[in-house]
Amino acid sequence: MDISERKKRILRAVIEDYIATAEPVGSKTIAKHAGLDISPATIRNEMADLEAMGLLEQPHTSAGRVPSPGGYRFYVNELMEWHRLSIQETERLNAALHLKAQELDRVITEASRVISQLTKYPSYAISAGPSHVTIRRFDLLMVERQTFIVVVMTDTNLVRNKLLRLPADLSETQIQLLNRLLNASFTGLTSEEITPELMNMAKQTAEDAYALLAMAVSFAIEVMKEQGTYDVHLSGLTRLLEHPEYRDLERVQPLLSYLSEEKALSTLPMPDDSQVKIYIGPENVAGALQDTSVVVASYDIGDHMRGLIGIVGPTRMDYAKIAARLYYFADGLAKFLGPGAPPPEH
Amino acid sequence: MDISERKKRILRAVIEDYIATAEPVGSKTIAKHAGLDISPATIRNEMADLEAMGLLEQPHTSAGRVPSPGGYRFYVNELMEWHRLSIQETERLNAALHLKAQELDRVITEASRVISQLTKYPSYAISAGPSHVTIRRFDLLMVERQTFIVVVMTDTNLVRNKLLRLPADLSETQIQLLNRLLNASFTGLTSEEITPELMNMAKQTAEDAYALLAMAVSFAIEVMKEQGTYDVHLSGLTRLLEHPEYRDLERVQPLLSYLSEEKALSTLPMPDDSQVKIYIGPENVAGALQDTSVVVASYDIGDHMRGLIGIVGPTRMDYAKIAARLYYFADGLAKFLGPGAPPPEH
DNA sequence: GTTAGCACTCTCGCCCCTTGAGTGCTAAGC
DNA sequence: GCTTAGCACTCAAGGGGCGAGAGTGCTAAC
Description:
The structure is a homodimer.
Chain A: H1 5-21, H2 27-32, H3 40-52, E1 56-57, E2 66-67, H4 69-79, H5 87-97, H6 104-119, E3 123-128, E4 135-144, E5 147-154, E6 159-165, H7 172-185, H8 196-205, H9 210-228, E7 230-235, H10 249-260, E8 276-280, E9 292-300, E10 306-314, H11 319-337
Antiparallel strand pairs in A: 1-2, 3-7, 3-10, 4-5, 5-6, 8-9, 9-10
Chain A binds a DNA duplex through residues 24, 26-28, 38-42, 44-45, 47-48, 58-64.
C-alpha cells in the first residue's frame, strides 16, 4: 500500500489511542500527540483520506474515527512494534508456566486457563495429535476368570488401558500366547493398516481366544484414533463481558453461544505454519467471529505433535502485547513438552 | 402454616401464572382463572394478606404480585403437583440416556450437556467418589531399559497406568519380585494406611529397586486420592441468557463469573441424602446464588459411589417439571451406571 | 500545503408528558 | 360480615422535544 509517512503516523496514533480508550478518536486528540506538530484541520484532511482508503471508519458523521479491520491489518503488518515483555511480565509468564507434570490434556487445560487469566480474554487450546500413530507394545493381564486388562503403549509414549470382561475362560498360557501374537502382529501398524484380512489371519491362529484379541485390537485402534484427533479446550469465556464492546447483551450473546458449543471450537482458526497468527474480524471464516479477532500461537511438541494456544476478543485489542505474550508462552510450552523436554518429574 | 384453602388456590394461581409469563400477576388475571368464582377486589384483599405473610412480593406499588422465595418454598412443599412426564418426554430422556459406554467422567460430562439441553438451564454434574478406595492389583511392566509401566487397579474396578522412566537397570526377575512385593504388601490398603513405616519395611526387602517401588506406590496413592475427590462439570452456561430475568447484563455477569470459576463449582449444593432437592434463592449459601434456584438429583452408582446432577436457574422456574425430569434422568443414570449395571459394551 | 473559522450533523442525556396497568380504600349489596 | 363495584392514586415505561457537546467538512486566508 502506497501511503505517506505522515499518514502512517496518524493511523498509528488513532489505532493506539483507540486500543487504549475504546472511544472514537478525534482530530484534536491526535494533534495533542507528542511528535506530531500539525493542526487538527490538517489531521482531519489526512483522516478523510485514510477513511477513503478503507483504513478508518466513522461510527456516525459527528463522531471520531475508529480503525476498520483493514486498518488493524495494516497496523499489524507494517506499523506495530512487537511488544517487548517487561521483566515482571516474563516472570509472571514463567510462574504460570510452572505447570505440574501431568497428562498432556491437563497441561492443555491449565495453559488455557492461565493464558485467559493473563490476557483477560477467553482462551482456547488445542493439541493436535500426529497423523500416524502406531502401537508399540501390548500387555494383556488377567485379573480373574473372565476379567482382563489390556494395556497398550503407542509410539508417542502414551499408555492407555481398559478393563475387559468377557465370558471366556482362558489359561495363563493362552494369555501369554495371545500377548505374543498381539505384539508380533499388531505393533508398528497405523489404524488403517489393521485390515479385515489381518484380523482373519489372527483368527486362524488364536481361535479360542479370538474374542479377547479382537477386543484388545479394537481398543488399540480407538487409542490410535483418539491420538490423531484434536482435543480442544476453552477457558475464561465470561471474560468477554469485562470488555466495553460487549457491554451490550445483544452483541455478546451470539458470540458466547457460539463459543460454548463444543463443535464450534473446531472451527476456530488452527494455522499449521508460523508461530503467531492474527485473524482480524472478517478474516475469520466463522460467522459469529466477524467482529472479533483471534490471536493464536502454535508450537511444536515433538513426535510430530503440535499444539495451539490462542485467545478470542474484540477487534480492538492490544495486538502487540497479546501476540508477544502468546509467543512467549507457546515457546515455553514447547520447551516444556517438546522433543528435548526432560522426563516428567515425580 | 395456617392458611385458608382459598388463599392457597390464589397463591398457586399466581405462582403458576408467573412461572409461565415472567410478568407480575394482577388480580384481574387471577379472577379470570377457571375455578375461582370471585371478584378481583376480593382477590386483592387476599393477595394483600399473602403479601403480609411473606409469600408474595410487589416489585413496586402499581405492579402485580410476584412470588417471594418463601412463596416458592411453600408452593414446592405443599401446593405443587409433581409433574408426570408425557410419553414424548420420557422418550426424549430415554434417547438422551443412550450414552455410549465410556469412561465415567465422559458419561458425567455428556449427561450434564444433555440435561442442560433438555431443561434450557446450565447444568452441573458431580461424581463423588467413595471415601475408602484400595488398590486391588498392581502390574509392573518393563518396556525397555529404564522405562517401565505401572498399572494399578482399584477395588472400584478402575484401571490406571503411568509410564515411568528412571535410571535403574533391573532384570526381569527383579521386576517380578517387585511385582509380587507390591501385590503382597500394598493391596487392600487405603492411602492413609500406607505409612512411612510400611515403606521402610519395603525398603529393606527391595533395596536395589526401591526407587521404582516408591514411584509405583506413590502413583497408587495418587490414583486413590483422585478417586476420592469430587469431579465437577458444568455445561450450558450461556443458556442463562435465554431467560428474561437475565436480559440485564449487570445481573448475569456476577452469576456467569461465579459459575465459570472452577472452584466455585464445589460450593454448589451437594446433598447427600434424598433424591431431588430444591434450593430456592437465599436458601443457597453461595452469595452469587441468592437470586437463583438450584434443583439437584442424586443417585447411587454402586461401590459406595454417588452422583449428582443439577441445574441452576432463576427462582422463577417450573419446579414441578424440572424436578421430575431430573428425577427420571438420575434414575436412568443409576440404572446405567449402578450396582446391577451390565458391563460396558464394545 | 497548512490552518483558522464556522456552519452543520449527530449522539446522548435530560425532562416532561401521557398511557396503562394495578392497587387500596370506601361504601353499598347480599 | 364477607363480597363487590367504583374511584382516586401510584408508578413504570415509552415517546417527543430540547440543549449540550464533540467532531466533522468546507471555505478562505496565510
